[in-house]
Design goal:
By secondary structure, the chain is α/β, with parallel strands linked by helices. The protein contains nine helices and nine strands. It is elongated, with a radius of gyration of 20 Å. Bound molecules: guanosine-5'-diphosphate (GDP), potassium ion and magnesium ion.
């Protein structure tokens, strides 16, 4: 493991530019949610690619663009924060010479970061080969990229070149995640985030930030018609547990049905969701717990 490299790569780019598609292509299976509706990816998703050379932890961000509402602001914040915390930035753009206000905004942010920036011109399967050079030229004029890679995330053309270039810039480091954590961890994390979000929403200010969510089980039934999910809401005090469960279980029921509705939407599948509540007094102080619960800070 002497030459093993590892680190975080932030993927940025407008909604619909192909970030999720690219991650799925690199990982070789469908885990990120892709759709032709913008803003499918609400929360930060970690996708982990592991090979002999090293481990790349991708942070798929919802896209930096002008925020239209609170959720939008939150998404921009996440993207900007990721930008500061990673080893390499990968910026995906559409195959065009048109560099609009949104792109200029990203350029402005990139000028403030110190890590290497790789520009990916995606969807080159939709344009003529000779046009690609004009896109490269246009982007070269606005920023001094460390690398520029034209590719097709959908067709998997040239994505291996991108992986090689990312490794070129990653530091030597440990294997942060096991090989088998790759497949369902991100989806579990999203599901956990949804449940956490619905809990915080339902509980309003009664339990400020003192909860975490773990997914105990997430399994599709053999007939493919239903996903069984078992999750635990972890809180710090017995009194909190009572509030989360509510009178006759009403609060937990509300959280569960709101979460289930959204998860079914995301997975495009029926979901059978079972929720438990546990008290873990020490969870916020324990590094291990924080890691488990998906907190990077
Ligand atoms: P995201 O919002 O940036 O995560 O974008 P998605 O990955 O969800 O992709 C948005 C749409 O663009 C989907 O319909 C994808 O199939 C399509 N798409 C992504 N990459 C490519 C590509 O390389 N070529 C083509 N033709 N379409 C792509
Ligand atoms: K999308
Ligand atoms: Mg996406």
């Amino acid at each position: 493991m002497d030459n093993f490299k590892s680190g975080y790569v932030t993927l940025i780019g407008r909604p619909n530019v192909g970030k999720s598609t690219l991650m799925n292509q690199i990982i070789g299976q469908k885990i990120a949610i892709t759709s032709n509706k913008p803003q499918t990816t609400r929360n930060k998703i970690q996708t982990i690619y592991t090979c002999d050379e090293g481990q790349i932890i991708f942070l798929d961000t919802p896209g930096i663009h002008k925020a239209k509402n609170k959720l939008g602001e939150y998404m921009v914040d996440v993207a900007v924060k990721n930008l500061r915390d990673c080893d390499v930035v990968v910026w995906l753009v559409e195959p065009t010479t048109y560099i609009g206000a949104g792109e200029q905004e990203i350029v402005r942010l990139l000028k403030e970061v110190k890590m290497p920036v790789i520009l990916v011109i995606n969807k080159v399967d939709t344009v003529k080969k000779e046009e690609v050079l004009t896109f490269i030229d246009a982007y070269r004029k606005v920023f001094d990229f460390d690398e520029i890679v034209p590719l097709s995330a959908l067709k998997g053309e040239n994505t291996d070149t991108l992986v090689e270039l990312i490794f070129k810039y990653l530091p030597y480091g440990p294997k942060y995640f096991d090989d088998d954590e790759v497949t369902d961890q991100p989806m579990r994390q999203i599901v956990a985030e949804v449940i956490r979000e619905k809990s915080l929403h339902a509980l309003s200010d009664e339990i400020p930030h003192g909860i975490a969510v773990t997914i105990e089980k997430m399994k599709e039934r053999p007939n493919g018609k239903m996903v069984d999910i078992e999750a635990t809401i972890v809180c710090e005090r017995d009194s909190h547990k009572g509030i989360i469960i509510g009178k006759g279980g009403a609060m937990l029921k509300k959280i569960g049905s709101n979460a289930r509705y959204e998860i079914e939407h995301m997975l495009e599948q029926k979901v059978n969701l079972k929720l438990w509540v546990k008290v873990r007094k020490e969870w916020r102080d324990s590094d291990l717990y924080l890691k488990n619960y998906g907190y990077v800070d």
